[in-house]
Design goal:
The protein is mostly helical. The protein has a domain of 45 residues. The protein contains 3 helices and no strands.
Length: 69
């Protein structure tokens, strides 16, 4: 399995977990994202861009008009 496929699987897994468990945007979110970014070796800017895109996508999905009605 190549790294691209691993990334696709990891993103799908993460989205599913967030759908099931929800997203908590606490006052400490930025600090926690920064700590995680440092731990995994990416910039805080990358971490925040990734998190923002993911949360926006999940919010849009949750509020999308019902396609079955």
């Amino acid at each position: 399995m190549d790294d691209i496929r691993k990334g696709q699987i990891a993103l799908a897994y993460l989205k599913n977990k967030l759908r099931e468990e929800g997203v908590r945007l606490t006052p400490n979110f930025r600090r926690q994202a920064g700590n995680t970014a440092k731990t995994i070796g990416i910039s805080i800017e990358e971490a925040m861009e990734f998190a923002e895109g993911l949360v926006r996508e999940l919010v849009e999905e949750a509020f999308a008009p019902n396609q079955h009605g």
